[in-house]
Amino acid sequence: MSSSDRSRAVDLTRTYEVRTYGCQMNVHDSERLSGLLEGAGYVRAPEGSDGDADVVVFNTCAVRENADNRLYGNLGRLAPMKTKRPGMQIAVGGCLAQKDRDTIVKRAPWVDVVFGTHNIGKLPVLLERARVQEEAQVEIAESLEAFPSTLPTRRESAYAAWVSISVGCNNTCTFCIVPALRGKEKDRRTGDILAEIEALVGEGVSEITLLGQNVNAYGSDIGDREAFSKLLRACGKIDGLERVRFTSPHPRDFTDDVIAAMAETPNVMPQLHMPMQSGSDTVLKAMRRSYRQDRYLGIIDKVRASIPHAAITTDIIVGFPGETEEDFQQTLHAVREARFAQAFTFQYSKRPGTPAATMEGQIPKEVVQERYMRLSALQEEISWDENKKQVGRTLELMVAEGEGRKDGATHRLSGRAPDNRLVHFTKPDAEVRPGDVVTVEITYAAPHHLLAEGPALDVRRTRAGDAWEKRNAAEAAKPAGVMLGLPQIGVPEPLPVATGSGCGLD
């Protein structure tokens, strides 16, 4: 290639940036969006580019009230940048795009593409069409066009991966708009899920997280009530798969066969994130949550009886319409009984289009805030007490990337214990890579992390660490520019299938 050709290649390089808001489903969708764009010839913009990319994609969430303000605020900040950069494009996708399809371009006419939760595979085509026709493209599918896992992906991690087993939700929680935006539950074939997992393990992945809006309802679409527990057990037979997690389950569908599968499958981790939302039976009924406090706490008791060291985390909403002080006291009681390792607590956020938005008894913000502070203080105390129980234990950590913000200054590394607790540990003399496994003894506990201040007891190099090292070498060897090809028309070819047996507010 001549010097002029190389210059032209650099000039034709188009960069992209994907900004993700919301749940793990959105994070996984964003990996697909990145894969689609790179398959169409785009190059990921450097970290910290802050909108200085040729294509900026917002993958949005519609669960909380500030979602709209956050999106339009960010779009407003990009408007002058777009004016100064001819050819720059902005796309908005995800749940908020599905909900506000008719208003986004009206409120932000400089947006080029609006796409929904069901047609993320169309993004490259819509960008090209907007460029050629010089007008905004708004395309919202009402039903799923292609299961997300059939699309190309650019995974954020070389050693851990999300695997979607279902999309949509059949629940009718009065505070949640997600079912209206992602549709009814649709399950993947078990063989396709296992084939994807085996392909990922073949690439060096050693930890997978099974994803679903209501993950343990898996099987309802295919008529098998024990399909989820069978899937967990099947994951246990995949050679090289060291850790299996799942999120988020619903208490309604948490059956004894799932608990048995968790306890009896060695690579299913001793961790459970199960949203409680409220400890008040009255509020749970108003939320249309099909369980009560006794049922929820009973599940936790069974899990702990079968998996004594399980770390249990949850989601809780404070200030739901009609919540009295007595109701709130029931939530505090449930938190004391459950002894959560951590709780993600939210102040109730009114979402237009949900039944709760028009309910009587909306709670004044100052009351909600005061209850939220009391709940947070209680959970902080419990989290610290539960973490103190880990001191003296010997744990195997999977070394993580980017988890410890102070690691450079403290000469530590960070990793995740089997129960997903974050542990900062003294950097060993031997080389340690993300994805490798380090054995340490816990010496100190804080409310949100643990410390292992002594020397590592063992360092195990893994195929996952090899995969991380290989990816980093490949990234460093990439040329400065690539020729931009036209995007493929229609849904891209599916991922290769391996042979063999592949919203947090639920």
TrEMBL record:
It holds the Pfam family UPF0004. It is found in: Cytoplasm. Residues 14-132 form the MTTase N-terminal domain. [4Fe-4S] cluster 2 binds at residues 169, 173, 176. Its EC number is 2.8.4.3. Its cofactor is [4Fe-4S] cluster. Its main location: cytoplasm. InterPro entries: Elp3/MiaA/NifB-like_rSAM, Methylthiotransferase, Methylthiotransferase_CS, Methylthiotransferase_N, Methylthiotransferase_N_sf, MiaB_methiolase, rSAM, rSAM_horseshoe. It catalyses: N(6)-dimethylallyladenosine(37) in tRNA + (sulfur carrier)-SH + AH2 + 2 S-adenosyl-L-methionine = 2-methylsulfanyl-N(6)-dimethylallyladenosine(37) in tRNA + (sulfur carrier)-H + 5'-deoxyadenosine + L-methionine + A + S-adenosyl-L-homocysteine + 2 H(+). Keywords: 4Fe-4S, Cytoplasm, Iron, Iron-sulfur, Metal-binding, S-adenosyl-L-methionine, Transferase, tRNA processing. GO terms for molecular function: tRNA-2-methylthio-N(6)-dimethylallyladenosine(37) synthase activity. SMART domains: Elp3. Residues 155-386 form the Radical SAM core domain. Residues 388-456 form the TRAM domain. CDD domains: Radical_SAM. Transmembrane segments: none annotated. PROSITE patterns: MTTASE_N, MTTASE_RADICAL, RADICAL_SAM, TRAM. Binds 2 [4Fe-4S] clusters. One cluster is coordinated with 3 cysteines and an exchangeable S-adenosyl-L-methionine. [4Fe-4S] cluster 1 binds at residues 23, 61, 95. It comes from the Bacteria. Monomer. Catalyzes the methylthiolation of N6-(dimethylallyl)adenosine (i(6)A), leading to the formation of 2-methylthio-N6-(dimethylallyl)adenosine (ms(2)i(6)A) at position 37 in tRNAs that read codons beginning with uridine. Belongs to the methylthiotransferase family. MiaB subfamily. This is tRNA-2-methylthio-N(6)-dimethylallyladenosine synthase. It comes from Streptomyces tauricus. The gene is miaB.
